[in-house]
Amino acid sequence: MAEATTQLKADDHLLLDQPLLRLPLELQRRTFKQSQIKIDHEQKKTTELLRNAAKTANSASPDDTIKSLDAIIQRMENLKRDLETLNEEEQSLHEQSAKRIRHLQELYEIPSLTDVKYENWARTRLDRLIVDYLLRAGYSDTAAALAESKNIQDLIDLDTFKQCHKIADSVRGGSTTEALRWVARNKDSLKKLLEKTASDKNAVVPAVTPKVSQLEFELRFQEYIEILRRHRTQDTARFEAIMHVQKHLAPHAGAFPDQYRVTAGLLAADPSDPSECYREYFSPARWTYLSDLFVDTHHQIFNLPIRPLLHVALSAGLSALKTPACHSSLNPSSAATDGHEHAKPMFAPTSSSNHIGNSLCPICSTELNELAKNVPYAHHTKSSVEEDPLMLPNGRVYGRERLEELERKNMRISGTSRDTDDERGKDDKRGRTIKDPVTGDKYPWERLKKVYIT
Amino acid sequence: MEAVEREHEKIWASSRKTGTIDATQNIIDQLRRARESIQNDPASAQVTLAKLQAPVKASFDDMTGSLKTTRGGQNNYQKALDKLFRDKPLPSSEIDALTQHSNLINRAVYLHLLREGLFDVASRLQDEASQRADQQRDRQQANGLDVSTEHPLGLDQGLPEDMLHKFQVMHHILDELRSHHNLQPAMDWAEMNSEELQARGSNLGFELCRLQYARLLLDGRHDGVLSMDSIMHALQYAQAAFRPFQRQYSHEIYELMGAVAYFSNLDESPYHARLNTTSAWNDVALSFTREFCALLELSADSPLYIAATAGAIALPPILKVQAIMKTKRAEWTSQGELQVETPLPPTYQYHSIFVCPVSKEQSTDQNPPMMMPCGHVVCQDSLTRLSKGSKFKCPYCPTESSPAQATRIIL
């Protein structure tokens, strides 16, 4: 066993919690941006209107002047109302952030991993991770119900994921409209993302830095394919398709050379029976690809991890807990899920398996056994076995204390008096038998051998 | 973390000040005043409007200033977040071996919800997962693609039958225990499964009887003095209930009966701790859960909880190694063994671990631990290498033996 640890390093522990604070900030920036755009626009417009009103005040009738002033007042009142709505949104985001910060702060106040407070905190974290997983899988009703029953609505991002799924579903259903609308709404964030990728040394940068996101290009490309599919016999459609290429695809030919190159070939292909090299472009599977691409892009601009954090936590946790014994053919509990039911009677009467404690290993338990088959097991540099190990004639090894405890219990059940044994001295095992806790086989104590684990 | 909290409080406070809204109101007020004076004196229109330009611009400048402050605050908050999460990249998808097994994860989540007693949420998950799976299937069918036949919750795979019903029973019994202090359902269950419980060496049955006895005894307590009625009642109960346990727990029963002698000042008696029921309800609920799950061949605590928590603890070293592997452009293998130790608290160890002292490898079914006649243990592969088929000396003591004398042990 790796050196056991009970120390809680809160800073290290936050690995899974980054999106909790990042997302609300990202949303705050959005409301900020909207206020800014509105104010900029109104400033320009109002200044202009006011200047015009002043200029014409002499020549215009007083009624007209008043009217133009009223128009400006109306505009400003609309602005105020918009700003108030945005501020309300902002306030609720701040309140949510404050609650999330407090939740993470709690972790800093917990002294150790064995503290009961840590257990409570970790259970809430699991609830959060499950809700995140459910939301990403598109099970938003379940997610909302779980969040409600655990009272963690402030720690989850129901609306963000719901909107994301709505658009992703529309794409999967064969429509580019909503996704393109989303692209237009998030122009700035998408541009920032492109800049970030371009400056990232580790990323594979194309020869020409793209000016539009891959998502946008692919959506436009799909529109092109759909035009071709819609009217494959009409020359007007061909014209429409060429116009579409010129408007939306040609400007980005340098950044997406491979795809741009096939546009001409596609024009000549028959969508209902395309040749091998064009088949993939007319395949309905492209909608699934586009939908996935949308979700990836969406998560990127919101600073959300691409995969559910539950996966990350689980694959690390399954590995850290997993031992070669968990899927061993000699392990009675995992044998049950192995599919060969006949393996079970071998171990009857199972009283407890080859587990150290009283509880079954979570990896051996039905819930995770199958899943854990796909991850590596934990790395250990030291043996870790029960104290004072003894080998039974069948090769199974147990700690002395466990065997003695079991013997005591069995004696109670069978009614053998303990007093007579005590008189003989504790270490005198003559004539006494022990029972293998896993297989139930019985052996005399004399046949046990001491094992030295170094 | 304090810096994050501080910066957030700052932006929150400034957002509460609503600078831009106030400035807008300011402009509205100025416009209204101007309107009024023009109405009163149409001749002053040009002057009034000319005078209006500067203050309106000033108010717009206030708005811009307020926006700048907000942006500055957001940037500072972002910086505080960056600092808090520095060197903590979002875990990449490279260590995600689980994506292809969403039905197994669904299953783990479903069973976790059952375990937690959240039956409504669980059934909603079942509905939504089937619904989405149906949609996907229809779409795939319509598109002429391969159709997945996997159960969306993985409930077709090696799952004990009727898990839902079993957990409902468990939660009913737990609820009666915890909320109503009613022991009867638990006792009935223990009675029904007494053989299996005995084979496990469980003493749940006795624990339940003991708690019931204590409850009856303490029921009519007044000012620390036990009532005679309760004593009679408790003793009557004890006579029948403790009979099956007489041989196994004679000492404990003796003590429990002895407590009656202290009916007037039980709190000061040596038996006080034995009859303390405050934590007993919780203890009994826990051991009931453990036994109930064990009979279903399930671990006592939710495996999903244990694994996710172990994951959070083990993640830092795993990510560190992952980062190193990336810079070295070495491959991250998802097979075999982790490359780094992932220390966990001792309660997270469930199996014995044998690391061969010669090869430093963990024993597996293919490379099992072998005990030499002297009692020292090495792995099969090391044994083969050490002996080369003939007699050899144990690496830890002077004893010589032949490989045939070594026996396979099961830890």
From TrEMBL, chain A:
Domain of life: Eukaryota
Keyword Zinc-finger: yes
Location of region: Disordered: 409-440
Main location: cytoplasm
Residue span, RING-Gid-type domain: 361-439
Family: Belongs to the FYV10 family.
Function statement: Involved in the proteasome-dependent degradation of fructose-1,6-bisphosphatase.
Protein name in the entry: Protein FYV10
Protein encoded by which gene: FYV10
Automatic annotation (TrEMBL), chain B:
Subcellular location: Cytoplasm
Domain RING-Gid-type: 356-397
InterPro entries from the UniProt entry: CRA_dom (IPR013144), CTLH/CRA (IPR024964), Fyv10_fam (IPR045098), LisH (IPR006594), Rmd5_dRing (IPR037683), ZF_RING_GID (IPR044063), Znf-RING_euk (IPR027370), Znf_RING (IPR001841)
Basic and acidic residues bias (residue ranges): 129-140
Zn finger (RING-Gid-type) location: 356-397
Xref: CDD domains: dRING_Rmd5p-like
Stretches for region Disordered: 129-151
The keyword Glycoprotein is assigned to this record: no
Annotated keywords: Cytoplasm, Metal-binding, Zinc, Zinc-finger
Highest taxon in the source lineage: Eukaryota
Location, primary (coarse class): cytoplasm
Sequence ranges assigned to domain RING-type in this UniProt record: 356-397
Protein name (Swiss-Prot/TrEMBL): Uncharacterized protein
UniProt organism field: Lithohypha guttulata
